[in-house]
Amino acid sequence: MIRMSRSLRLRLPLFILVLLGAIAGSCAWFTFRDLSRTLERAAGTRVERASGRLLSMLAESVDRIRADARRTARNEALAQAIRTRDAASLVAARRAMTEDIAGGTGGSRSLWTRGCERVLDVQLDSAAVPIGECPLAAPELAALARDGDWRVWIQPLAAHGEMVRYDAIAPVLAKSGDTLGYFVERRMLRNANTGRAIGELIGRDVRVLLGNASGPALWTDLSRKVQSPAIGAERDRWTYYDGPDGSRLIGVARNVPHTPWVVLVTLPRTNVMEPVHATMRQLGIIVLVALAAGLAGAWLIGRHVTSPLRALAGAAD
User: Fold this and answer.
1) Closest CA to 188 of 111, 103, 253
2) What is the rounded end-to-end Cα distance, in angstroms, of the chain?
3) How many other C-beta atoms can be found within 10 angstroms of the C-beta atom of residue 315?
4) What CA–CA distance (Å, rounded) separates 158 from 45?
5) SS3 14
6) In what order do the strands lie in the sheet with 239-242?
7) 8 A C-beta contact, residue 171 and residue 73
8) Rounded Cα gap, residues 120 and 97, in angstroms
9) Which of 9, 38, 64, 224 would be a feasible disulfide site paired with 302, CB 3.0-4.6 Å?
């Protein structure tokens, strides 16, 4: 009888401790799961809204670039320079190519005939990348020119060392509507303040990248070339990405209208989960205190239950 009371005195606290641990562990797991899902959905909604605002800004910027290129290409001085190529017409065309585009972005501009002969080059700063190749070297552009499907074409991003550039191409038209040649503007993405300003607008922990939607994989943070997570065909809805360093990201990709680009807005999942981890640490302390209290209570209960049994066993002896 005494041996049985001792066994019960040990097993009862252990049973209660295991039961409390199982209940506390289950509650903690469900709390972790539900809180994680809630915060991840909130983060996904945040990057969707941020990417939507950023996409509107980029679309407005692209529209201005296209409007500037179209206005310059329609300047009669450019058409006259292509037709005659005399000194006076070249001076007038140079003035138009220098002054007609607002924004002070620098870069290079060039004028070409329909047959890809260079007419004029303008470099607006010492760091500008010259346009050394005919704009119709790309087969898809040549096909568009043959079909007469010319508006203003924004080209894919291209690397120049650690910097990233792109071209905007507009047709130079005669009064009859025939294509005489092409005006090409080359711009560099090299302003680090742009990325910081966007970060302040949509959140400092949010990263913004711009890349090619297809073709050569090239990404920029709007100031230099960077690595990016591999993205699939998913657009306009938040999803998970694996960063180039192996980190888990929550982000959304959106195609930029009238360009072959895609903008990617991401948020590190570790940042999102930090409140969850802090909550679980606090909850873990509470659970440990509760288990200690439960163990003490179970020991007291076991002692209370087994004491009469021990007394009865002593009387029987």
Assistant:
1) 103
2) 10
3) 7
4) 31
5) helix
6) 225-226, 219-220, 207-212, 261-268, 248-255, 239-242
7) yes
8) 10
9) 9
